[in-house]
Amino acid sequence: MKKSIVIAVTLIIHATLYGQNVLYKGTVIDAEYHTPVAYAAVYIQNTTYGSVADNVGEFSFTAPDSLKNVRLVIARQEFKIKYLPLDNQISTDLIIALQPDNIEQRAPAFLDNLGGGKSNLVALLSKATLLVINDWIPLGNPETNKFDFGRIQTFPTYNLVEGLRLRAGVASNSRFSPHLFLKGYVAYGFGDQQFKYRGEAIYSFTKKAYHADEFPKNNLSLVYEKDLYSPGEIHPRSLNDLLLITYRRSENEATYRNFAEINYEREYKN
Fold it and tell me: pLDDT, tens digit, for every residue of 158-211?
């Protein structure tokens, strides 16, 4: 009986010593801008052990300590794949910097070679295209700016009531605060000669990588707005109903709307 107990205790100790898991934990960041890289895949090469970083670039998972020659693979679209050997290194509090793929920077050079040296024109067209696609541009140094200017696509618009409408806005990012975000715009219609505006303060209960609308949202916001709306677009379900959006009850009419509201929005990963 005593011999059986000794064997059982020995097996338990052996399993404890040689069957433990190692915790791998850290943050994935952009090597150029030093901002978190959301939803990067982090896993041990040639195994099924790993996880996906959250919206602020943080990840954690466990793997057996019996694995040898451990090498982490970190992959994310628009970034170069990184391989990180971890033998004899600390596996927690890792800061992993991914290099941007910078395909938009390589494209002008490629097009310049095809076009025979028209680099200035190609670079200008490339920058203009990126401004429209990105819709927001940084105010100041892109590595340290706390506010962005936009939206580019809505800067000049036209409608029957306002005529030519110009709109300019700013929005803070996580460098200003990872929890408190401020944004707003001012617009002017040359046809009705009226100013319109919107101001919004958003508090995110979860830390954000760059802007307040990152998934999943857990935001409390205070909004004050004065702007022009078509009555056919104010239906309470129109924002989520494509059929109602296409049905315009007052296509050539508009009304001014001045309101304040408090919103709470919560999203879940499932």
Answer: 888 888 999 999 999 999 999 999 999 999 999 999 999 999 999 999 888 888
What contacts 225, CB < 8 A, 6 or more positions away?
A: 197, 198, 199, 257, 258, 259, 260
Q: If we measure between CA atoms, which residue out of 51, 55, 57, 56 comes closest to residue 72?
A: 51
Amino acid of residue 114: L
Please give the Cα distance from 219 to 216 (Å, whole number): 9
CA geometry: angle 129, 134, 139, nearest 5 deg: 105
Q: How many CB atoms lie within 10 A of CB 96?
A: 19
DSSP state of 160: T
Question: Which residues have a Cβ under 8 Å from the Cβ of 40 and sit 6 or more positions away?
Answer: 28, 52, 53, 57, 59, 74, 75, 76, 79, 98
What percent of the chain is helix, strand and coil (3-state, nearest 5)?
20, 40, 40
How far apart are alpha carbons 33 and 140 in whole angstroms? 13
What CA–CA distance (Å, rounded) separates 148 from 133?
14
* CA distance linking residue 147 with residue 89, whole number of Å: 38
10, 53, 13: which is closest to 29 by C-alpha?
53
State the CB neighbour count (10 A cutoff) for residue 174: 21
CA 149, CA 195: separation in Å to the nearest integer?
Answer: 19
The DSSP secondary-structure symbol of 12 reads H
Q: How many residues does the chain have?
A: 270
Asked whether 181 and 211 are in contact (CB, 8 A), the reply is yes
Question: 98: which 2 tokens?
Answer: 């991914």
Q: Residue 161 and residue 47: Cα distance in Å, rounded?
A: 62
pTM above 0.90? no
Supply φ then ψ for residue 98, to 5 degrees: -100, 135
